[in-house]
Amino acid sequence: FLKFIADVRKIPKTKKDDAIDSAIKKLGLELVLFQQLETLSKGYKRRVGLSQAILHDPDVLILDEPTDGLDPNQKHEVRKLIKEMASTKAIIISTHILEEVSAVCSRAIIIDAGEIVADGTPEELGSKSQYHNAVNVQLSAEYDLTKDLSALTNISLQNDSENNFTITSKNGQSIFAEISEIAQQKKWPISELYIKKGQLEDVFRSVTRKTR
User: Fold this and answer.
1) Strand pairing of 60-64 and 90-94?
2) What is the DSSP string of 188-212?
3) Is residue 68 predicted with pLDDT exceeding 60?
4) What is the pLDDT of residue 64?
5) In a designed cystine with 208, which of 46, 74, 112, 140 is the match (CB 3.0 to 4.6 A)?
6) Best mean pLDDT range from 8-17, 22-31, 118-127, 190-199
């Protein structure tokens, strides 16, 4: 199949073997080289698709759900490959897997009903999330946080699960220092305390809901 693609792409005979070998190594296809395509797993079929796409070393690469069907190790390898290629290529990824956007993209565009509804870096879009600068509190024992936080009018408290809470800043400003100071003063039984990143999924829902 790769030899056929190399001929379609008119890769010179002197460069064809090297191009095929390079694509095979980058996508880890050595173990399935002589199997029929229809016998391959979904993950390996995805790898073969990527290998033929990079065979001719294009300047622009358009990928649709590039890690769909891959296991965590394969996802890591493909994302690593995308990052490596991004230094010399323009790579456009279409995906609904928003963790992929944060993992490999330098710019993200959300399109809804044919219209661009958001455009920026993943960090810029994440800052529009209601959870931007939110503080996650995991307690090791039951404790009523409500009374300790009653004086703070710029926050909201959400009980995510037993002894796990999200404290959200209503204006998006950082509240970690305030929460940390209160936690120390009141001796909260804390097992974890950290700042949450803005969630792209939350931003996606908020900017696409308007056209529904």
Assistant:
1) parallel
2) --EEEEEEPPPPHHHHHHHHHGGG-
3) yes
4) 92
5) 112
6) 8-17
State the virtual CA torsion across 192, 193, 195, 197 in degrees, nearest 10. Answer: 20
Burial 85-110 (b: 16+ CB within 10 A, else e): beeeeebebebeebebbbbbbeebeb
The per-residue pLDDT for 14 is 94
pLDDT the model gives residue 17: 95
Nearest to 105, CA basis, from 115, 116, 95, 117: 95
Other Cβ atoms closer than 10 A to 21? 12
Between CA 142 and CA 204 the distance in angstroms is: 34
Q: Which two tokens stand for residue 62?
A: 């358009």
What are the backbone dihedrals phi and psi of residue 88, each rounded to the nearest 5 degrees, phi first? Answer: -125, 0
As a whole number of angstroms, the distance between CA 160 and CA 137 comes to: 10
CA distance 109 to 118: 6
3-state secondary structure of 70: coil
**Strand (E) or helix (H) holding 110:** strand 108-112
Give the position of tokens 């024992």. 141
Q: How far is CA 95 from the centre of its chain?
A: 10
Query: Rounded mean pLDDT of the chain?
Result: 88
